[in-house]
Amino acid sequence: MSYGILIVSHVPEIAAGLPKLLKQVAKDVTITFAGGTDENGIGTSMEKIGQAIAENSGDEVLAFYDLGSARMNLEMASEFADKPVHIYDVALIEGAYVAASLLQAGVALADVEQQLRPLKIKGDK
């Protein structure tokens, strides 16, 4: 079983930039991203997210996002995905960094999720 990481941000440059940081600690983990609207404006695109899920070579994808409406598009895109997508309500940079470094070290998904719990953003979900 292999796991990949997906970054979703309202800002294309954030979505594209964060994988550069993650690759410093997770060179062997597949990391894809989706940022901005279809016109590359501020926002998110279900189509871009779906494409990033499909392009991720992981058997399962751990998804991290910046704001609530990105979660909505992630949920919709994951319904059409051909692989499981795990969506995490955690601080974007810190959560993705923790997950990437642990996946690189071969840590099991349940243990990765346990390490993500303290980074959870408080809210309705």
TrEMBL record:
A cellular component annotation (GO) from this entry: membrane
One example GO MF annotation: phosphoenolpyruvate-glycerone phosphotransferase activity
EC number: 2.7.1.121
SUPFAM superfamilies (UniProt xref): PTS system fructose IIA component-like (SSF53062)
Catalytic activity: dihydroxyacetone + phosphoenolpyruvate = dihydroxyacetone phosphate + pyruvate
Pfam family, one: EIIA-man
InterPro entries per the UniProt record, alphabetical: DhaM, DhaM_N, PTS_EIIA_man-typ, PTS_EIIA_man-typ_sf
UniProt record, GO biological process: glycerol catabolic process; phosphoenolpyruvate-dependent sugar phosphotransferase system
Subunit structure: Homodimer. The dihydroxyacetone kinase complex is composed of a homodimer of DhaM, a homodimer of DhaK and the subunit DhaL.
Protein task: Component of the dihydroxyacetone kinase complex, which is responsible for the phosphoenolpyruvate (PEP)-dependent phosphorylation of dihydroxyacetone. DhaM serves as the phosphoryl donor. Is phosphorylated by phosphoenolpyruvate in an EI- and HPr-dependent reaction, and a phosphorelay system on histidine residues finally leads to phosphoryl transfer to DhaL and dihydroxyacetone.
PANTHER family xref list: PEP-DEPENDENT DIHYDROXYACETONE KINASE, PHOSPHORYL DONOR SUBUNIT DHAM
Protein name: phosphoenolpyruvate--glycerone phosphotransferase
Organism for this UniProt entry: Lactobacillus equicursoris
